[in-house]
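Translational activator for mitochondrial COX1
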Amino acid sequence: MASRIRPLAPALRTLPRTGVVATTARVPSAATTAANVAAQSAAAARRSLSLKSFFSSRKPKADQFTSQFEPVLEQANLFHPLSKSPLPAVRAKAEWIEAHGSCPVCKEHSPEQKSKAPKYECPDCGYPTHCSEEHYNMDKEHHKHYCGVLREVNEDEHDLRSGRRMKEFEFPGAQHRDEAINLSNWDTFLYTRGFLSMNSERSMRHVSHVLTYPLTIGSVLHQSSPYRLGKDLTVEGLKSLAALRHTLHPAIISGITQSHDLRSTATHTVRIFCLGARAESHLPPHIYMQLAYLFPSTAFQIHFVGPDAIPPHTKSKEPHQHVHYEQLTFVYDSSRYEAYHAEAGPFNPYYDVFFLFSPGLAHPATRDMWKPTIPLLLDTKCAIFGTGFDEQDVMNDVNEIENAGYELDWLMKPRENAFRSLKHEVNLTDVRQSALCNWGIWGIRGRRYDVRPAE
Ligand SMILES: [Zn+2]
Ligand SMILES: [Zn+2]
């Protein structure tokens, strides 16, 4: 087994330094911005904890809207028409929608003509939705289907920057090894992990939006996973996860005792490769501690790879490593994956797993970029999990994979992700469209043939 053990000095590893390739990836969504706001708040709110925070040397911004102790917006005053918001970022959003959006009534009535810019703001949700009050009044669909979600997003965004003490972001630290964690859903996870009780759906939306990435990973890999054989997992899926869990839960197999510094004594380092990384790489590292706490005996390397894999609070695309606490090492690399793959190998299905968060495998802007990557991933025989922001997005990716004719096994059939973000993200070019980050999940692996012909 010794040869399978990952090197434990990741900082010394030579990283590929191929040139940065210009990105044609989809424009980072509002998700990135919102996640950062939430993450900054979380970092600020947690400063009293002993955990060495990535931001420990940072002072809170002077910006009046991020001040922790002087609320700027009262809870009863969270709704503002976007163009009149006290938050510059929200006003900028209104301008962006006016510049790039279009009026749905114009579109419907004269599809051959260019529809006019949405300059009229709905008084109920505050979004610029139509070209004029007249067209607004003609649209019966807006209030029926879209206004409620937009109002919610409007108030959530103002709440995030209201300056109130955001207690929901005061996350718990490690817990005793004997305490069982229930990963059935957000509620049971938050309760059994000892999070402060969420007393509003808004708090749940904020927290789920930040934790969806680490918890999507954790809920798949953990022995208390909500995904079960037959219902969600295939037999091949259970085999792949059993291999990873053998590494992730060593205590239940060999009774390995815990040490204080996992990096010097851990017998196992699990590598999680997040390819095409965007928002997930911009999260402050301590958010990922909530993943690490699920596996107290395991050290992790989390590799964020792709043209938009940029560490939080820098703009540098230089390959970068960051060791956070004792259990987590982060690697950021904006190389194309093909170059990275050769350096990062060899891969082992017991220790390595891939996650593709909303990869857009079928999206016209990114499809070609993924084509050389997928066969490399399948060749490793490691588990590969992907997510999508709604049913259509998931099925587009799944169909793309099926139609490509790869030799693969399904590990997890596409299904709703128990740890999707509960927060709607609005498409600013068409505010009638909104999605939930990591709404659905699926899993595949390159096909293994257990019986090989004799040499
Ligand atoms: Zn119009
Ligand atoms: Zn409205």
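thats it. The first strand starts at residue 120 and ends at 121. Residues 103, 105-106, 116, 130-131, 135 surround zinc ion (ligand 1) (CB under 6 Å). bye
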